[in-house]
Every structure is written in structure tokens, then in C-alpha cells.
Amino acid sequence: MSHNIIDKIDAGQILNETRLAKGLTWRELAEQIDRPVVWTVAALLGKHPVPKVNAVRVGEILSLDDEVVSALQRQPYRIADAGLATDPTVYRFHEAIDVYGQALKELIHEEFGDGIMSAINFSVDFAKQEAPQGDRVVVTLNGKFLPYQW
Amino acid sequence: MSHNIIDKIDAGQILNETRLAKGLTWRELAEQIDRPVVWTVAALLGKHPVPKVNAVRVGEILSLDDEVVSALQRQPYRIADAGLATDPTVYRFHEAIDVYGQALKELIHEEFGDGIMSAINFSVDFAKQEAPQGDRVVVTLNGKFLPYQW
Amino acid sequence: MSHNIIDKIDAGQILNETRLAKGLTWRELAEQIDRPVVWTVAALLGKHPVPKVNAVRVGEILSLDDEVVSALQRQPYRIADAGLATDPTVYRFHEAIDVYGQALKELIHEEFGDGIMSAINFSVDFAKQEAPQGDRVVVTLNGKFLPYQW
Amino acid sequence: MSHNIIDKIDAGQILNETRLAKGLTWRELAEQIDRPVVWTVAALLGKHPVPKVNAVRVGEILSLDDEVVSALQRQPYRIADAGLATDPTVYRFHEAIDVYGQALKELIHEEFGDGIMSAINFSVDFAKQEAPQGDRVVVTLNGKFLPYQW
Amino acid sequence: MSHNIIDKIDAGQILNETRLAKGLTWRELAEQIDRPVVWTVAALLGKHPVPKVNAVRVGEILSLDDEVVSALQRQPYRIADAGLATDPTVYRFHEAIDVYGQALKELIHEEFGDGIMSAINFSVDFAKQEAPQGDRVVVTLNGKFLPYQW
Amino acid sequence: MSHNIIDKIDAGQILNETRLAKGLTWRELAEQIDRPVVWTVAALLGKHPVPKVNAVRVGEILSLDDEVVSALQRQPYRIADAGLATDPTVYRFHEAIDVYGQALKELIHEEFGDGIMSAINFSVDFAKQEAPQGDRVVVTLNGKFLPYQW
Amino acid sequence: MSHNIIDKIDAGQILNETRLAKGLTWRELAEQIDRPVVWTVAALLGKHPVPKVNAVRVGEILSLDDEVVSALQRQPYRIADAGLATDPTVYRFHEAIDVYGQALKELIHEEFGDGIMSAINFSVDFAKQEAPQGDRVVVTLNGKFLPYQW
Amino acid sequence: MSHNIIDKIDAGQILNETRLAKGLTWRELAEQIDRPVVWTVAALLGKHPVPKVNAVRVGEILSLDDEVVSALQRQPYRIADAGLATDPTVYRFHEAIDVYGQALKELIHEEFGDGIMSAINFSVDFAKQEAPQGDRVVVTLNGKFLPYQW
Amino acid sequence: MSHNIIDKIDAGQILNETRLAKGLTWRELAEQIDRPVVWTVAALLGKHPVPKVNAVRVGEILSLDDEVVSALQRQPYRIADAGLATDPTVYRFHEAIDVYGQALKELIHEEFGDGIMSAINFSVDFAKQEAPQGDRVVVTLNGKFLPYQW
Amino acid sequence: MSHNIIDKIDAGQILNETRLAKGLTWRELAEQIDRPVVWTVAALLGKHPVPKVNAVRVGEILSLDDEVVSALQRQPYRIADAGLATDPTVYRFHEAIDVYGQALKELIHEEFGDGIMSAINFSVDFAKQEAPQGDRVVVTLNGKFLPYQW
């Protein structure tokens, strides 16, 4: 029985510190393991179980200890963090849903029928769009439509 | 002094019932007033002040009473609706932010610097993506990057 | 423009009073419209849009006004009702999830992989099981497994 | 006086890590102690006092320390974990109750009378149902009806 | 279809006003319908469905309208009232549970085993105990022990 | 200045573990110090200051360290534990107050006048009542009536 | 059965408007019914049942309708008003308790023993103290000490 | 740089334990430093910065370590403690404000004008009033009236 | 007794609609009654009692009914509106305090001593600052320092 | 990989203690690094990433360890601290927004149009204003107006 169990969240923080110390960007790390960048950041910070091949590769790139590599592979608890939701950078996303969520619901029902956009069969893309009046953050949410189906 | 003040939220509900009774989709209505579809739904349901020219045009299309047309133009309170946030169709968007919000924060800081994606200088696009394993909802959030700037 | 808009929740209450006055059980009503019983109760009380054919048939059986029949067909807001959750009959279900939810999560991940039981592609069955020491309520939740799939 | 008191929750985590390290599934473990699988997972993670014979047997199978075996047998506090309730895999169960709880209450009262489904004289079954369009999670809640009885 | 549906809570308030106007105590009313006094007050204020024979008798005693007598018989929602819980007379009961609840849990487990005192197969008795230093309120909670029983 | 200050809650947990290890029931312990059993459990778990004579006696019976004996005598903070209130065994008591609290308030006012049942000049009795259909938990709350008295 | 039941809170508001319209101060009104001023304001605004003699006298002074006079005499619900607690004039009192409550608890225990200051056998006095640097509000809380007494 | 930083709250607890061990009452301590007793208890438990002369004197009287004496002098955070507010001895003060706060607001406005009683330019006095029917706690709040003044 | 009591909040809404209908800005209205602009808006929307001379003048300018003019003069409840606090325009102010509040506290203590900035002896100024990269909102909070003074 | 990771909040506390021990005011420190004073306090306490040149300079001035200097430069989580918001010195700012926030919203919309004052492109100034009746705290919030712009 292992005496060095590390929590996934702690593993993610250790990984992140190491990444910063090595001067590696998230995007470079994502490219090196050939995975989408938002998935990579979320997974390495503890929101997804990292497949063994990716976890081992990240461990090699960053010279992580085995228990960190092991923790990355474990199944997560994806607990909503009420504190984090007040960070201004994160809050703007929730505010956008508070303002436009009803409109999105109307359009999903109008164009797809009664149901939801899955947050499980789902991906997020992140891009930087250059613009003369200031660069723009472009986040694309892409989820399978799931009809209410008895 | 007007004795027929209608609340913006009530005005939006009357408008929506009328729209459904006439068999007009949100997308058709948006095209007729030549405005983006998510903006149109949100604004007509009370989340934005509707410019006079658009409000009057919508009033003509749907044969709305003057006080409804007037209410559409008023400045809104954009109150977050805690009940609505539990509707499954809306909840999935908040859940996605709960799962991926930290990753989006990391990437904004990595690629843009310390700051936020504006939810004010901001647009949302909604699209239906056909796919063999089931159609997909594609929602694109596009906001100007605002650096913390003293 | 209709001047007799009835809220779906109010429509459900009118329907329910009428059903009780006529001495018709939910199960009989479900059979007459040939739909599953839990779906029927939930939908007629406002949690689902009722297909036109079912709504019209229910309207005939219960002699409901047109605006009630119309309200049944509208798209619902499925808002979580914090008050209802404290009713002892409803609370026991939440308590069961509080006690066994972690175990269900462990087993879903063990036997299906990383993902969820859908609450959308989902049905609920309700049965009475006779037993010598007292009858038992048997509720079966049946949802499609959705793997986290990027 | 023992100086090695281990919390039941901590004992469950140690047990789980050891189980994973040994490559033993929950279902295999449940079979080896001849107990239902949902009960086994819940109890070993700290939600029930484990009878001595089962605790000792689990201790042998997993080579657990005595204080872990002892902790498994203690009476638990079954505190509702508000954080866990936001994990998407667990949340779907609460959402299902939010959507269908009122219907279940109606049917319990209609078919059994005024009362509740016990969450104490109660069992949960978990099964995997294979289906051409994707496997399904089947969770059966089975509780004794308790009439309000003065 | 009845057009005079009265809410159970409203029915209870009408009943109570009428009772006070007639100068009838709760205890007298309970005796006249031959039911326990705490049950009678709770049920007539809307916490229980009142059996038809009792509801009709109360209606006669207090000359209540038919829709009130009818409302008394309906199945209740027993929603916890967070406001009421702050009334000093009610708060003291919750405070007593906050102070002594853990001790009651210890003793239930010690003397009965793992389980609960049912709040459904349950009665409450209320008595006035005369004492030289001031009369005392004596409330007896009597519930069937329900063992956790899979 | 003492360097071995133990928190009252921690002292109670040490005491309880020791008690269990010695196979002594709460009731036996209460008899040995000649105090009511609910008071004894509550006080030894930290809800009351234990008089020196009782604390010393308990220390002797259980061979507790001096700082534990000392902690038992300190004045407590009787903080309401929101987590504990969700434990099913404790929750049923709060639920009973939620269902019957208004009735108790009505009867207190009817039979005593405007005022409360004291939770300070107050005792709780716990008993096991044998019954053919299952043993019953009987909890008696006995508090001095305190009239609102300016 | 009375058809003109007025809520105590509403009765208090009607009374207050009438009082203001007549230019009568609370202190004058208290003197005219020979009751303490804080009691008078609280009771007439619905926090206490007003004895018949006082209610009738107030009704005469202010020419109140009978149903208002009747409402004043009813037993109140003394619900804590979370909104009112944020009014700056009321908030300062709660803030004072937040800052000094622990000190008051220490002193009550030191000088009286384990127990509380009753809020039931309790009076509040309000005075204006003139001072060169600005007048001062002096509020005196006077409650019977109640020892924890089993 | 000091390596022995002690938190003000921790400093207060150490001070209090030492005080109790030495058998010194709060009132005696307050007299020895010639400060009001409620201020003394609050300040020494961490709610106020203690002037150096008082902190040093208390340190001498109780033989406190330098870092405790230093901590007493630091500026506090006066965070409202939601747990403490549920302690029965503290709760009664908040309950009194919940019941009489509106009346105090009315009287402040009537006798002083629109404004508040300051909780900053403010003192609290604590006294024991002997009475034949039981001693009374007398707490006097004395705060400067501050008019809303633009 | 007046039968036309209007709530201050409702009075403010009527006033505001009338003002908009007349095309009068808040700033023009403030100038016409010679009061600061932020005070004027807040007071006319119900946050302050409006002095009679100002209320009457506003009534003349806007041709308001007497009961509106009367309501403006009444003492307000200044209840914090949790919904309004989520409106994006208002939220940014609370966010600024969440980010900079601790720094403001440090500086108040450093430069003034232990105490607060009064929110009662307090004014707010609002200005538009033109700037090449976009106009700026300048809000100046000006409150008397109040030292903790026993 | 660094084994001496310090949290930004902890780094801020160490820095502050060192600053106090050295008798350096925040304003002096701000001047020495030539940055605005409110920014300096907020940033050094962990609310902003401190540019390397400023962090190194502060490290020299205060002789801070390298890991503290490093922590100062990291990207922060700007979590709203609900406890801090109850500190009286901080609370007054939130109260001011609760009282005047609606007025500020009205004026922003009237003079700028539909939009917000940015809390990101934003600065805060702090000044002491001497006045004969007591010095005043003057806090100036200065944020770029951001129009809702699709």
C-alpha cells in the first residue's frame, strides 16, 4: 500500500509550479502530448482523469514524481468552487450565462427541440483573436444536443 | 403621466406569446430586424434596451401595443435569476464554467496577460452543427480582453 | 394576441383539481393516453412539454379549457424548488442520494468509465411491491451512460 | 487509550487506495464479503458501520491496518456533502429528483396513502444495461412505505 | 370543475380565525373530534390530510364553508418554513436539538443500534406540568425505531 | 502557563474513544456519576461545563489525562452544527419540529399564554419503549414556561 | 366568521400612518396608554399581543377601525426579518453584538455562571443623552439571568 | 523578521487560559489596567488593538510571552462569526434586536432624526442587578447619534 | 386616515417614469432643486427622506400626485437588495471593494488610526471624465473618519 | 522543482509583518517603488501580480526571502472574502454601494449610456482630507466606461 498518496488538486499545483519554473506554456505542453489545450489545462489541474500515456509523458517532460503522475490518472471529484466563481476572470463567464442563458435556452428549444447541450459530450476551444481595437478572447462551447427522451 | 407602465420582463413574455401564436421563430424575427440572433432573444426578453428603430419594427411585425414597444426600449436591470440557473438547459452552461473556468483563467493569463474577457464588449453566437452521431450545439463567446490597467 | 395565457404550473394545478374531482387516478390517466405513469404526472404538472396529441386527449378526458390544453404543450422551465425539497416525502429521495451518491459515482466509474448517468435520456419507473412486512416503494432510475468525450 | 484513532472517512480513503493498488473492483470485493455492491461501497467509504465479520474479512483481503479495520466498524455521521452534490456524476441524481420528485410524491400518495418511502429500511441496486444506442445505468431504489401513523 | 379551490394553508387560517371568534380552544376542538391535540392543531393548520369524518365534523362545529372542509382533506406539502423557525417560541425547540441532538444520536445507537427515530410513525404529546417554581411545558416525542436495514 | 490546552470537542472525542474501548455504555457512565443520561452524554461531548466532582470521577473511571479532565470543566461554546443537522438520525428531530412546531406554538400560547418553553431551564429524557410492532424511541422535552414579561 | 381579517403587520402599518397623520409621537402614544415606549412601538407594530385595554385605548386615540384594534390583540409570529437587518440603523445593533457578543458571554458566565440573559423576561429602555460633542443614543437591555438548570 | 507571529485570536485564547489558571477575573484584570470591563474583555480577546501601555501591563500581570503582548497591539479584523451567533448566550442578543430593532429604529428617527446610533463611537456597559425573583443582566449600549449628513 | 398610502419604492418608480416621459435628466432635476446629483437620485428613488421643500418642488416640476410627494418625505428602510447587487453595473462596485477593500482598511488604519470611514456622514460624487481612450466614470466617496472611541 | 512554494496570501502576511517590524508605512513603501498607494497595498497583499522589478525592489527594502519575492509575482486568485466583508471598516464601503448603487447605475446610464464602469481598467485613490469637524476619508474610484457593445 502506497504511503505517498497525493490529492489530485495538490498534484495539479505541483505540476503547475514545475511547469512555470521550466518556462513551459500550457499550449506547448498540450502540443507535446497532442491533446486540446483547454482539456489539457483542466485535466492536469485535476478536473479529468489523465490517460496513462499522457500522464507518463507529462511526467517525463516535467520530471514529476511517480505519485504525482499516479494522481493525475485518478478519477476526479469535479466540485464547483464557490470561491473561484468570484474571481473576476471566472465571474465574467458566469455573468455572461446569467445574462444570455435564457436566450440560449430559447434557441436550443427552437432549433433542436426540448433538451440540453451536453456538458459531458462536450469540448471547449480557446483562441486569441487579434483586432485593431484590442485583442479578443474567443471561447467556443461545443456540446452534443441531448433531447429529453423517455 | 403614463398609467400603462409595463415591466420589461412582462413585456418580453407578452412579446414571446405573440411570437409563438404567429408562428414566427426567433431567428426569423432577428433577421427581420437585422440583428444577431442571441442578442435579439436576450434583448426582446428584457436583458438589453432595444434601440427605438428595432423596437418599433418588432412592434409592427408582432402588432404589439405601444406600452410593450416602449418597455422594450427601457434600460434593464440584469438581475441574476437563481431559479433559472437550476433549469437543466441553463445549468449545463454554469456546470461547464465550473469544470473549465479555472483552465480558461489560466489560458487568458498565459496568452493575454493579467486581465479578463469582457462580458460587456462581448457577443455570443449560437449555431447548430450537424454531426453523424447527433447534432451539436455550438456557442461562441467572444469578448474583448481587458488587462488590469491602473 | 391571446389574452388568456395560463402559466404551466397553474395549468397543472387546475388539471389536478379536475382529475381529483372526477375521481380519476394518475395511473388511469396515464393509461388512457398510453404514456408511462411517472412521465405523465411530471409532464401534466408542468415539467415537460406535452405533445399536442396527448394534451388534446387529456383535455377531452378532463374537459379542460383550451388555454389549459395550450399551456400543457409549452416548453417548461424546470426550476428546482427548494421548498418542495424539504417535504418529507421528497426529502427522503435527496437523503438517499446524499448517503449513496458517492457509491453510485464509484460504481458508474468502475463499470462504465468516466462519465455520468444522463438525467435527460432518462426514465423513471414507479411500482408498488407487496411484502409481508409492509409494502415497498420501488423507483427505478434508468439513464443512458454518457462518457466524458471531448 | 488508543493513540491511533482514524476517522471513518480517512479509513475509507486508505481502503480505496489499497483496493485500487491491488486492482480489485468494488464488485469483486462485495462478492468476497457476500454483501450487496452499493451497500459495500457506501459502507466501506464510511456511510455505514461495517459488521465486525465483514470488516475483518476486508482487512484480510486488503491487508489493512487494525485501526482501519476498527474505524470501519464505528457508527458514522452521515453528513450531506454540499460540495459532492455539485460533482456532475452525483448532481444528475439530485436533478432527477428535482424534476420528478413531485411526481413520485403524487404516486406514493395515490398508491400507498399519506406517507413516505423509507430511506432507512431501504436498499439501492446498481446495474449496467446493455443497449444498442449506448449502455444504460439502472439504479433501483427500494424502500418500505411508511404511512404517517400517529 | 370547482372554481373555489382554497389552499390548505389559507383554509387553516380561516378555520383558526373562526375558532377564535367562537371562543373554542384547540383542546376542546380536539376532544370534540376525538383526536390527539397536537395532531389536531397540526392537521387543521394544513400539515396533514384530515380524514373526511373529522373534516366534516369540524366543519359542522365551526360552520365552515364546503371548500374549507374540502381543503382540509387534501394531501399537504409539508414545507419547512425558514421564517417560522426564527419565531422565539419555535426557535427554542430547534435550539434544544442543536444542543442535545448529538447526545440523542449517541443514545439511539447505543440502546437501539444503527438507525433513526421515525418522524412518520410518530406522535407528539403536549402537557402542562404544574410546578412551584413555575409551570413547565412537557413535549413528548414518540417515534418507532427504524434500523438501517438493507 | 499550561502548554497542554485541549479543546472541549477534542476532549469529548478522546473520552468517547476511551469509553468505547473500555466497553462502558453512556448509561453506565451516567449512573456512575449519578447524573441524567442525556445530560451526561451532551456534557461529556462538550455541550456543558462538567462540575469538577463529576469531571474528576469520569477521569478516574476512564483513566483520562488531566488536561482532558480540565477541558471537560470549561465553559462551552454551544455552536449549532449545520453539518450534523443533516445526519439522518438528527435530521428527523428537526423535521418533527418543522412539521409540528407551529402546533406546539399554538398550544403553548393557548395553555400558558404568550411566551416560550425555556431551552435553558430545561431537561431531556430518553427512553426505550418496547412495543409489539417495533420498539419506540421516546424523547421528553421538559422546559419551564417563560412568559413574555416586560 | 369575520370577513375582515387584517394581518398584524398590516394593522401596524395602518396604525403608524394614522399616528403620523395625527402628528402624535410614539412617546406621546406610550404615555397615553401608560406603557414603556419601546414596548409600545414594538407591540403596536406587531411584535406583541396588545392587551385589550391598551388596544381599545389606542383605537380611540387614533380612531382605528375595529379589525385593526382586533389584530393588535392577536398572538404574533415574531419572524426575524433578514432584509430589515441590513437597514443601516438596525445593522449597527447587530454589528455591536458581533463585535462585543463574545465579551458579554464571558462576563455573563463569570458573574452569573453558565446561562443566558433572557430575551423573554426582558425589557429595553431607550433614552436620549445630551452631550457636548453630539447627543447619544442609550439603549439598555435588561433580562433575567437564566442558569442552565437541568 | 520575526519568526514567532501569533494570530490575535490565538493570543487571546492563550491569555484567557492563563488568566483562568491564575484565578483572575476579567473584572479584576480590567480594574488593574483601569479600562472598562466590556472593552477589556473584547480587546484582550482580539476585537480591538490594545494600547501598548495596557498590553505591557497585562503581559506583566499574566506573565505572557512577548509575541502575545505584541499580538494584542495589532490592528484586528472584526469578522462576524456566524457560528458564535448560534451560541444560546449570544443568540439571545441577536434575537432581542430581531424583535425590538424596528422599534429602536422608529425611536431613533423620532427623537434624533434620520440617522444611526454609532457602533464605533460607542461603549457597552455590563452590570449585575440583584432582584428578588432572580438576578438580572443589564447591558447598556451607548452610541453617538450620527445624522445622515451629506 | 389616508386611504392612498404609497410605498416609497413605488413612489420612486412613478417619479422616474414621469421624469423620463418629460425628458428631464436626473442632473437637471438635481439642479432645479439645488441638491447634489447622487443624493437626488438616491433620495427620489426612496433611499432618503426628502425634505418637504424639495419634495414639493419636485412634485411641481413633475406634476406628481400628493401621495407621491408625501411618500418621498417619509423615513425609508434602506434594505440591501441582493438581486440588484448582481446587476453588472452595480456588481462592478462591489467587486472593486472585494478586490481593494483590504487595502483601504490598511490605509485607513495607517493614516487615521483604528476606525472607519462613515457611510452616514458621507457623500458621493459622480463625474464623467473625458479621456482619449474612452471616457471614464469617476465616483468619489467622502466620509468622515470615525475613530473607535469608547 | 522548488520545494519552498509560498502562497501569495501567506507571502503578503509575511511581508506585512516585516514592514511593521521595520516601521515602514505603506505609503513610504509605495513611494519607494514609485507605484500608487492603493495598488501597492492590494498587490503586496496578494491581489495583483507584482511586476518583477517592483517585487525585487520590495524584497531588497524589506530583506524578504526569495520565495516570498517569487510569490509576489505570481498570478492571483482574487476571491471575494465573505468574512472580510463583515469587518466594520470594510462593511461601510459595501453599505455605501447598497445605499447608492442604484443611483450610480442611473447616472452611468444617463450620462454614458448602457454599460458599466470597468473594475479592471480601473484605479482607486485614497486621501486624507482635513476638516474642522473631523478629518475625512476620500476614496476615488476611476474606471473606464465600457458600453454594452455587441
UniProtKB/TrEMBL annotation, chains A, B, C, D, E, F, G, H, I, J:
<protein>
    <recommendedName>
        <fullName>Cyanate hydratase</fullName>
        <ecNumber>4.2.1.104</ecNumber>
    </recommendedName>
</protein>
<dbReference type="GO" id="GO:0008824">
    <property type="term" value="F:cyanate hydratase activity"/>
</dbReference>
<dbReference type="InterPro" id="IPR010982">
    <property type="entry name" value="Lambda_DNA-bd_dom_sf"/>
</dbReference>
<feature type="active site">
    <location>
        <position position="118"/>
    </location>
</feature>
<dbReference type="InterPro" id="IPR036581">
    <property type="entry name" value="Cyanate_lyase_C_sf"/>
</dbReference>
<dbReference type="Pfam" id="PF02560">
    <property type="entry name" value="Cyanate_lyase"/>
</dbReference>
<dbReference type="InterPro" id="IPR008076">
    <property type="entry name" value="Cyanase"/>
</dbReference>
<dbReference type="InterPro" id="IPR048564">
    <property type="entry name" value="CYNS_N"/>
</dbReference>
<feature type="active site">
    <location>
        <position position="95"/>
    </location>
</feature>
<keyword id="KW-0456">Lyase</keyword>
<dbReference type="Pfam" id="PF21291">
    <property type="entry name" value="CYNS_N"/>
</dbReference>
<feature type="active site">
    <location>
        <position position="92"/>
    </location>
</feature>
<comment type="function">
    <text>Catalyzes the reaction of cyanate with bicarbonate to produce ammonia and carbon dioxide.</text>
</comment>
<feature type="domain" description="Cyanate lyase C-terminal">
    <location>
        <begin position="79"/>
        <end position="150"/>
    </location>
</feature>
<comment type="similarity">
    <text>Belongs to the cyanase family.</text>
</comment>
<dbReference type="InterPro" id="IPR003712">
    <property type="entry name" value="Cyanate_lyase_C"/>
</dbReference>
